[in-house]
């Protein structure tokens, strides 16, 4: 039994090493593939997905049957399901990525030195990206396409629930690569449900440059804990909004209602309101009552729990990500107390301030180091598309390399190109 | 015995956790410290170093005595030694860093979305930087100052040989911080020679954002292998220069002689020449003979070993970093063979091409992914100062975050500041 286990592990390891070596070789070619060729591959893939929609739906039915057998929740079954409309969405998304600006080769900076050297800093691909995701099969297309756009080879490891759907979509991506004359190893899908493959990816410092986990807290936490390879991710979006005493009442109402109720399950949804003590009975009460009227469970501190409809919060409510129709609320003495609370409890994703006082907003912007800070705007704007950065592979809260929305440009590195004329150093 | 060991490890771990927590707290304050205050701290430190030069030299004498006792090599003793001239160098370097542009708060990009949102991407400090270095005591001042300039707290772990010198210099940095009203924990020096402190730093994902090793291959290799924290470093500088058939003979001679002989011990010194077969008997022979005349040991492949003065290379000479007056040399059929050789053997630090043919240079620039590529220029220019980027903490060959010379700007991250007017998402 032990030997069989060892042999199986070895073969997964060998398989992953083979995938890694192929990805590395492909990435060397992709690094100088023209923008036109990558564009053609993505358009080809979009066409192939649309042509193969019946096969994809048939593959998806296999996954749905497996999901029913495994007793997946209705929400997970819904995430898994593909129909013609959702496949149209995948096609549109592939086309949108195809039409985005190609970041590779962009001159980021250019200058001349007194020695006569001309120096350019140009954008290059990162190399090989590993994407580990859960049930949504569209990630196969989106992540594969975005990595290719930035000239990277990608190793995709989808959830076991979407195994057949991902395989069918991946076949279309390969068709796009072939039609454009790009190496098929540019986009590889790990062909096993074995979890050993994930462990191998997390350790693969020799062939993966960065890992992007796409999924719930369980997956992201596992990846952040175990990866030896750098990771672009956020574990949680514990988003705060501070309502200052100088807030405009209407803006406070609009921003908070939108930030909580537009969609409660996204990482930019607000989870905690901090209200200046001077405006508790005016703006604060108005905002909280409007939330209660919208069916939101408001968990307030001692003072706020006295407002009709508000329930009492416990210590566990501070720093909690509900991803649901629930919000915590707390009174603070001033912007500094709000900043201190956010520093203690935030996940460094996105925070907002509502105020007409520019000096308060400035202090909030300066003293909080979350990836995204919003002034008089809904935190639900925390999204690569809304930032005008195109498709995103996720939002990162780390401080290294990529931060905030991670789009094609953030999936690149750079190199220095230096031109002299026989120039030597003194 | 075992208990004593455990207790000692625990106390080092506790000490390092205390240093880490203090650094993190200081970094939160430094993040919004004004440029003026950081400037004042650095000028104050420069003045303190000059005033304390006699104490520093006395401390250095203790280190030199310890070094003699330990039997350090003359080269290491020289690196360790401080005199008034070298202290003047430290003072000048502190002043130069003080006068550099402050990168924090710089608006990297700014745009407006159709929703009315105004988005700024602004530079922020990385947080806490750990610097692990060997015998040169001036690194204490340089690294401490550069991290502070970029708004980072720094934890310095100097070599055991320079223990007293580093302590004396560190005391002056603290004087600068105090005089400017900045927290002393902004620049901490690990107050023990115990190697456990290094291990603790390498694992300290909770309080160190990036580790910079400064030293030889042994130290850098250890850090790259063992660190859980991201690392900015290069392990080796295996620098290649390709002399194309369209090379200008004089430029080839000037560039190669400078790249090899100006200083042989720096990471930008060329270690391997690749010569186009068509110019072996003309440019190639001229360059190699000039190197031999300068006392360089040239180790050539079969063809080149026939040139008088050139010795035969072995397989081990390809991909070798000599850091000495030795160079490998090989004939290649064309630029593609040169590129293939470099891809196989380079350490992705710096490579050069000498040619008058722009298409050859373009191909070399596109298809090689080293951090720095030089065309008709000496590879010894691979240096933050020569790039006009100010003081550098080192050169990085990784693809994540910082690459090439790592100066103050490369020691920063960024965040997004978004301004609306009660703006909500549809």
Short description:
Two copies of one chain form a homodimer. Chain A has helices spanning 2-30, 35-51, 53-70, 74-80, 84-99, 138-149, 163-179, 196-203, 217-226, 249-261, 280-293, 335-345, 358-367; strands spanning 107-112, 118-125, 128-133, 153-157, 187-189, 210-214, 239-243, 270-276, 297-300, 311-312, 326-332, 350-354, 372-377, 392-396, 404-407, 412-423. With 426 residues, chain A is of the alpha/beta class.
Task: Walk me through the structure.
The structure is a homodimer of 426-residue chains. Helix content of chain A is 43%, strand content 21%. With 426 residues, chain A is α/β, with parallel strands linked by helices. The first copy, chain A, folds into two domains: 2-234 and 406-417, 3-Layer(aba) Sandwich (Aldehyde Dehydrogenase, Chain A, domain 1), CATH 3.40.605.10; 239-381, 3-Layer(aba) Sandwich (Aldehyde Dehydrogenase, Chain A, domain 2), CATH 3.40.309.10. In chain A, the strands form four sheets. Chain A has a seven-stranded parallel sheet, with helices on both faces. Chain A has a four-stranded parallel sheet with strand order 5-4-3-6, with helices on both faces. A three-stranded antiparallel sheet of chain A has the order 1-2-16, with no helix packed on it. In chain A, helix 7 links the parallel strand 4 (153-157) and strand 5. At the A-B interface, helix 10, helix 13, strand 13 and strand 16 of A face helix 10, helix 13, strand 13 and strand 16 of B. Chains A, B: One of its GO terms (biological process) is L-proline biosynthetic process.
């Amino acid at each position: 039994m032990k030997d069989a286990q060892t042999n199986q592990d070895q073969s997964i390891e060998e398989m992953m090493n083979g995938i890694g070596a192929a990805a590395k070789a492909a990435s060397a070619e992709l690094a100088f593939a023209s923008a036109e060729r990558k564009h053609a591959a993505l358009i080809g893939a979009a066409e192939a997905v649309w042509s193969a929609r019946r096969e994809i739906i048939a593959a998806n039915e296999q996954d749905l049957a497996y999901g029913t057998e495994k007793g997946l929740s209705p929400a997970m079954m819904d995430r898994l399901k593909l129909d013609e409309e959702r496949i149209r969405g995948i096609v549109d998304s592939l086309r949108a990525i195809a039409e985005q600006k190609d970041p590779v080769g962009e001159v980021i900076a250019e200058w001349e030195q007194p020695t006569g050297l001309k120096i350019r800093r140009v954008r290059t691909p990162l190399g090989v990206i590993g994407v580990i995701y859960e049930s949504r099969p569209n990630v196969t297309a989106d992540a594969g396409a975005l990595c290719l756009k930035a000239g990277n080879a990608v190793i995709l490891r989808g959830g076991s629930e979407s195994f057949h759907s991902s395989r069918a979509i991946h076949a279309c991506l390969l068709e796009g690569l072939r039609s454009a004359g790009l190496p098929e190893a540019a986009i590889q899908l790990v062909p096993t449900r074995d979890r050993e493959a994930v462990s191998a990816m997390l350790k693969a410092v020799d062939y993966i440059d960065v890992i992007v986990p796409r999924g719930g807290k369980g997956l992201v936490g596992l990846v952040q804990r175990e990866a030896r390879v750098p990771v672009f991710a956020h574990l949680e979006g514990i988003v705060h909004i501070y309502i200052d005493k100088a807030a405009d009442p209407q803006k406070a109402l609009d921003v908070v209602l939108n930030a909580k109720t537009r969609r409660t399950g996204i990482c930019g949804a607000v989870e905690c309101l901090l209200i200046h003590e001077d405006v508790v009975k005016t703006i604060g009460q108005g905002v909280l009552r409007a939330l209660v009227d919208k069916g939101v469970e408001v968990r307030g501190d001692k003072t706020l729990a006295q407002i009709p409809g508000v329930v009492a919060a416990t210590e566990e409510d501070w720093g909690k990500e509900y991803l649901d129709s629930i919000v915590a609320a707390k009174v603070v003495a001033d912007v500094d107390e709000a900043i201190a609370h956010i520093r203690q409890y935030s996940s460094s994703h996105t925070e907002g301030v509502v105020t007409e006082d520019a000096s308060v907003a400035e202090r909030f912007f300066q003293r909080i180091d979350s990836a995204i800070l919003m002034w008089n705007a809904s935190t639900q704007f925390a999204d690569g598309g809304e930032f005008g950065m195109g498709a995103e592979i996720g939002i990162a809260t780390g401080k290294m390399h990529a931060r905030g929305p991670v789009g094609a440009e953030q999936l690149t590195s750079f190199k220095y190109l230096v031109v002299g004329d026989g120039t030597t150093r003194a």
